[in-house]
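Consider the following assembly input.
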Amino acid sequence: MALLVQKFGGTSVGSIERIEAVAERVIKARQCGHQVVVVLSAMAGETNRLLGLAKQIDTIPTPRELDVLLAAGEQVSIALLAMVLNKRGYSAISLTADQVVIHTDNNFNNATIHEVETQNMTTLLGQGDIVVVAGFQGRDIDGNITTLGRGGSDTTAVAIASALNADECQIFTDVDGVYSTDPRIVPSAARLDVIHFDYMTCMARLGAKVLQLQSVEYACQHRVPLRVLSSFEEGQGTLVNFDVMSNQNIIGVALQRQQVLVNITLPATVINEQLDLYGLTAWDLSTDSSDEISQIVISNDDLARLRLVFDSKMRHIGMVSILSLIGKDIQQHLESIQMVLQEAGITVHTYQGDKKCLSLLINEDDHLAAVDLIHEKFVVDGQCLGNLPHLAVS
Amino acid sequence: MALLVQKFGGTSVGSIERIEAVAERVIKARQCGHQVVVVLSAMAGETNRLLGLAKQIDTIPTPRELDVLLAAGEQVSIALLAMVLNKRGYSAISLTADQVVIHTDNNFNNATIHEVETQNMTTLLGQGDIVVVAGFQGRDIDGNITTLGRGGSDTTAVAIASALNADECQIFTDVDGVYSTDPRIVPSAARLDVIHFDYMTCMARLGAKVLQLQSVEYACQHRVPLRVLSSFEEGQGTLVNFDVMSNQNIIGVALQRQQVLVNITLPATVINEQLDLYGLTAWDLSTDSSDEISQIVISNDDLARLRLVFDSKMRHIGMVSILSLIGKDIQQHLESIQMVLQEAGITVHTYQGDKKCLSLLINEDDHLAAVDLIHEKFVVDGQCLGNLPHLAVS
């Protein structure tokens, strides 16, 4: 008998029919004799609907009240799943974050979990109940409702798994595991059976959408084994863990699209200070940190915030993509990677990286060709690196 | 400076535009120097939408989980109103029942308030905040979310007003006060400036929809002055209180439509025991309590539950209406009332009542003519009872 935490996202609970399917997955685990804590997001579309109401009132609604509003979304989905489970004869109890209790700081809209109390969950699990917890939310020391920011349900699941010392935290999503690259772009992308936390952290940081960086880091830090599974299909998914041996050198290829090249008429040292202050992440392209004009690459999603900081000092130059290879001693392959791209007429403007990852700045227009080519040559064929036997397409 | 509790129902908060209008009313009271606690229902339609989701799962969803689900509705409306007030520069804080704390029993879906803690509200009011509380909900001793049943927001408002020793509990609704009869049926219905709790209780019990019986009884018991006001128009509304002098004899006419006449092949004593057991209210028409067949009148809304109790022993005879007159020593007018109805060809099957009310059983088809006639003759004209000067139509 294991203790499992199973997290299902908004799409997985987007309708009563979908919630019935989630119940099937939960019941299957229960029938195997496992204790189960389920963590849910709000039904797909609900968070946006609530946010839409708030935006009718104010472009920046009161942060405290926004959290009260948004937390209602998960309250609906947990109640509905508990009803379905009860209807099918499996005793289930829903708990809001306040009922768990999940303690956070009071950084409304983007709170950080400090502690998860286990007593209520342990009592319920002990009496055979399935516990259904609202993801994404918490309470601060004054009893205010907080939320963890978008995608925070993954973090809730990991934090609960850590607190309960669960055997596995299973993240159910719309793909059946972690792939060597985005399977929607590259059809030959292969599902990984296992991946080491170090590489998964790189993948998430460098553009893989399947797991949120914050929750991977939290799981890594608290040594919680993660498994990515499909909500809709059977399968073993991908296990993210520490004691994982991999016989391939290059694990995967990640892509960050919609990146913006920006010139700022300030020295790089000043820019980096400001970026840190506002929690913005950018790739600094400056060669000399005392130059009067600096160049950075930043996600298009952060452009509006960047404008608030640098205003007229910044000039938007163009769109680029960042292609990253993740694997062991990846830097040693730099030359052959550059050669392959050059032969295909794809310009690499610059690169950066460390032992586990190598990021290349390319033109936005080249992203499809580049990811396809690099994945084919360095992951599937492995022709520069020897065969990669267990990476066969699942 | 007074302390006011203002309650707004679902229609009053049915859209962002409506919530903005509610904010206007609240701000007006605040500008007069009053401290204000606002109690809100869920946005119109929201409770039904949530109930619809639950009914897709089960005809009788898990009561505990139904309360978790439905309580999300008020959480949305309180957050939105607090945002609007903050946007307009009035500091406002929303509180769920759990944050207040509103203690109830654990009778899910129909819980009773035991106690309202005042400390959180008093602190916030003391620092100048407008406090916006979720109506309809509570928490039991184990921290479970409960709800008070439909219309429970009125009860929340009254309970908070009582706990805070508020000067007035103001119920904002879609009519501008308590009328001498339903103004949607009888255009000459007149708004009452004041009404004594005793008569208001009769009105609510006998069909007046403007105030819920439970909340009137609660307010009466805890001696909380109630005022019924329009959400949409200015006006003084109707004050329900104790030290109220009325110089008219007949205060109003109430109507209960959609009543069902039922024969049950059991003695009345047995039937009444069963009705008590299931919390059903009926008008027992039996003349001899040992008769093998009894006849009762029950609301059509309760018919399904009645069938569950008496099954094949009951037979549905027909639809009737109950017309009730409320006022001082009302029984003394029985003869003239019967005469007026008889002259108009309206049959009175039977009647019952006490010092403050008189109820007549009439055919369903006669209800419009009867209420119009009785209201005209005994309330507006007051011709059988002397003039009723301050009942002029507002």
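Chain B touches chain A at residues 16, 19, 50, 53-54, 56-58, 61-62, 64-66, 68-69, 71-73, 75-76, 78-80, 82-84, 86-87, 93-94, 96, 98-99, 143-145 (CB under 8 Å). Ask yourself how this observation constrains the way the partners meet.
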